[in-house]
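Structure (tokenized):
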């Protein structure tokens, strides 16, 4: 994925800071907006991990700071829940003007309640996902319980939230109670995925049940056990992202009529290896893949190794070539299974190698052929397997040119 910093104005003219996570070298399948948790920022771990994981699934994601938070302008103390909803709508308008209107809204905690309210004002939205969201916005009142009396009497108070101090005004509390979640959720007009952990100590799991009951189908619930409210463990946020991507693609694909089908920008295979380990994200003709090394080699074993992929390419090409030949001959080949093993051997162990002092790559390939075929046909298919394009590439002289490009 690649990150792009952008800025846009909300309806009050305040400039908000945002980041778009783009699929690497490919046009997105769709666009999503991510609304962060109360008093968090666009750079909270869950927002970053989920946005980047979705971009690896060809979904572009815009995550932004609400007014007065993070790098956005404005005064947080002067905002209300309704202002948060308006910021989401402004973000959707920015996407529509600059790229494409959002298909998916994702909201975490109070951001989840906000995207439920915003959906009716963004007609392009086809899917909404909430993570640890309160059913009613005023369920957040318990966060200010110790300062409630002061807020009511003085109009505002300093409240400590997640180790930071914020000014909360009475207008914020008053606005929280001015929303009817039942009617909003019932008339959502989009598919809904409710995600919540039963261990959430900030927003109870009963909120997820209330949201789910209020919504019409299509709707789904997914437990995020054993995650905490903030999805502070990386594996929890990545799991949530994978589930959102898998679920949302159904609705993205359902709406492809009348839209240009996403294409690879320049027919390249693109790989990105970040600092820290060997785990590598790969983008191949519209498909997101992962490569890694085993833990014994210093990797995290999150995907096949480069040589595993090389064997897979040879095996896939072999199977396709054999099937294509059998189909052309109208032979009753049902299936072909190819098993491969790769190792480095000394050339002296190879009877037909020219230089006995070199080490060479040795691929063992076994074909298991199923179907009512004669022995002659089976032998012919074995011969044809030697003609698969990847096999021939590995036997021919290969030229690779490398160059540096500007960042």
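Design, position by position:
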């Amino acid at each position: 994925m690649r990150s792009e910093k952008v800025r846009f104005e909300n309806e009050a003219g305040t400039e908000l800071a945002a980041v778009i996570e783009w699929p690497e070298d490919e046009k997105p399948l769709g666009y999503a907006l991510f609304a962060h948790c109360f008093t968090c920022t666009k750079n909270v771990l869950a927002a970053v991990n989920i946005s980047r994981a979705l971009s690896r699934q060809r979904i572009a994601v815009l995550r932004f700071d609400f007014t007065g938070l993070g790098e956005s302008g404005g005064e947080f103390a002067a905002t209300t829940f309704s202002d948060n909803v308006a910021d989401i709508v402004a973000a959707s308008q920015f996407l529509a003007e600059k790229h494409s209107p959002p298909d998916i809204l994702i909201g975490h905690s109070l951001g989840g309640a906000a995207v439920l309210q915003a959906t009716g004002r963004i007609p392009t939205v086809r899917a909404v996902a909430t993570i640890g969201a309160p059913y009613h916005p005023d369920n957040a009142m318990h966060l200010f319980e110790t300062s409630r009396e002061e807020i009511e009497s003085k109009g505002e108070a300093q409240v400590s939230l997640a180790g930071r101090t914020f000014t909360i005004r009475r207008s914020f509390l008053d606005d929280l109670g001015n929303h009817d979640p039942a009617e909003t959720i019932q008339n959502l007009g989009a598919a809904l995925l409710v995600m919540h952990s039963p261990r959430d100590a900030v927003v109870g799991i009963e909120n997820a049940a209330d949201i789910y009951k209020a919504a019409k189908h299509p709707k789904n619930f997914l437990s995020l056990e054993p995650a905490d409210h903030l999805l502070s463990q990386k594996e929890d946020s990545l799991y949530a992202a994978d589930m959102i991507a898998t679920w949302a693609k159904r609705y993205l694909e359902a709406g492809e009529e009348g839209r240009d089908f996403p294409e690879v920008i320049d027919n390249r295979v693109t790989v990105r290896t970040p600092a820290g380990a060997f785990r590598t994200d790969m983008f191949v003709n519209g498909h997101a893949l992962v490569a890694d090394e085993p833990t014994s080699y210093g990797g995290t074993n999150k995907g096949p190794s480069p040589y595993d992929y090389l064997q897979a390419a040879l095996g896939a090409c072999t199977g396709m070539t054999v099937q294509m030949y059998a189909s052309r001959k109208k032979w009753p080949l049902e299936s072909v299974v190819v098993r491969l093993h790769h190792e480095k051997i000394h050339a002296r162990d190879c009877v037909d190698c020219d230089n006995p002092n070199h080490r060479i790559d040795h691929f063992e390939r076994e074909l298991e052929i199923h179907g009512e075929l004669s022995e002659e046909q089976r032998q012919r298919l074995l011969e044809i397997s030697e003609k698969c394009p990847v096999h021939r590439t590995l036997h021919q002289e290969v030229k690779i040119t490398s160059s540096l490009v500007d960042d």
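Reviewer-requested clarification: The chain has two domains: 2-254, 306-395. The first strand starts at residue 2 and ends at 9.
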